[in-house]
Design brief:
GO terms for molecular function: ATP binding; hydroxyethylthiazole kinase activity; magnesium ion binding. By secondary structure, this protein is α/β, with parallel strands linked by helices. It has a single domain (about 5-265), classed as 3-Layer(aba) Sandwich (UDP-N-acetylmuramoyl-L-alanine:D-glutamate ligase). It contains 10 helices and 9 strands.
Length: about 270
């Protein structure tokens, strides 16, 4: 079955099953992530008290954790939730927000990757370079553009092999690889890098697909869904010119998503 055929079926399954997605994420984009999941048809739960997360992860269909704006309490919660996800075979993804910015995030992320074995890791190029220990130029959390595609693909494949996981390297072209096969998703719009939290939303959307698909299909679907939703929002932006409406336009795009007719996916 082609991905073009499979994608609408996965969307349908999310709407039909409404999987519970446990998110432990930063407070800058937490609201956008919850709304992105609702727009797709999933059920978000944003719970982060270290004393209750294990119980909540155990009842979820997927776990999404995000290192943005990290705190002691959230690190404790992410470790506990990751342990439950692993022992209960609940699929999990980690968004490596800002992992290049501090040694604290790098060593915490390495410990998590080792212990929780997330199905998908996600980051922009500088974040994926940082987690692999390759020279990077982190300047805060945003990167948007990446270097030459071949260079980004090499580091994405390296990360996938090093951590035995699927990697989603986000940017102008989203790269998805399991270390052997690789795809690029060219949908999206440069405006997506001009509002905060689109990367975090993409992580939440990947987690929703993880509840109904394999890690590679989930990462591809998450990139496709966000790219198509970004294009929907950009079309609305053309008529209204309102950047404040742009993130809301992404939610409208996720809500109205039905198929992948406009998908620009390339095998690499
Ligand atoms: N220039 C671009 N053209 C098209 N799509 C883009 C562009 N830049 C980013 N995107 C899209 O925006 C989303 C977020 O990617 P990005 O790499 O900016 O994440 P991020 O750096 O983690 O963002 P944030 O920290 O704001 O959450 C992805 O869906 C990506 O495809
Ligand atoms: C702006 C910002 N700072 C930490 S997390 C975050 C949200 C986008 O990653």
């Amino acid at each position: 079955m082609t991905f073009q055929t499979q994608f609408p079926q996965l969307l349908q399954r999310i709407k039909a099953d409404s999987p519970l997605i446990h998110c432990i994420t930063n407070h800058i984009s937490i609201h956008d992530c919850a709304n992105a999941l609702l727009a797709l048809g999933a059920s978000p739960i944003m719970a982060e008290h270290p004393g209750e997360v294990a119980e909540i992860t155990a009842t979820s269909q997927a776990l999404m954790v995000n290192l943005g704006n990290i705190s002691d309490s959230r690190m404790e919660a992410i470790a506990a939730a990751g342990e439950t996800a692993r022992t209960h075979h609940i699929p999990c993804m980690i968004d490596l927000v800002g992992v290049g910015c501090s040694q604290l995030r790098r060593s915490f992320a390495h410990g998590f990757l080792l212990r929780a074995h997330p199905a998908v890791i996600k980051g922009n190029e500088s974040e994926i370079r940082a987690i692999c220990g390759v020279e990077h130029h982190a300047r805060g959390i945003d990167n948007g553009e990446h270097g030459p595609l071949a260079q980004a693909l090499t580091v994405a494949k390296q990360a996938a092999r090093q951590f035995h996981t699927v990697v989603l390297l986000s940017g102008k072209t989203d790269l998805i690889t399991d270390g052997v096969c690789a795809f690029g998703v060219e949908n999206g719009d440069p405006l997506m890098a001009r509002v905060t939290g689109t990367g975090c939303m993409q992580g939440a959307v990947v987690a929703a697909f993880l509840a109904v698909a394999s890690p590679l299909e989930a990462a591809l679907s998450g990139a496709a869904a966000m790219g198509l939703a970004g294009e929907y929002a950009a079309e609305q932006f053309q008529s209204h010119g309102s950047i404040s409406q742009f993130s809301l336009g992404i939610l409208d795009g996720l809500f109205s998503l039905r198929d992948a007719a406009a998908l620009r996916m390339i095998p690499l």
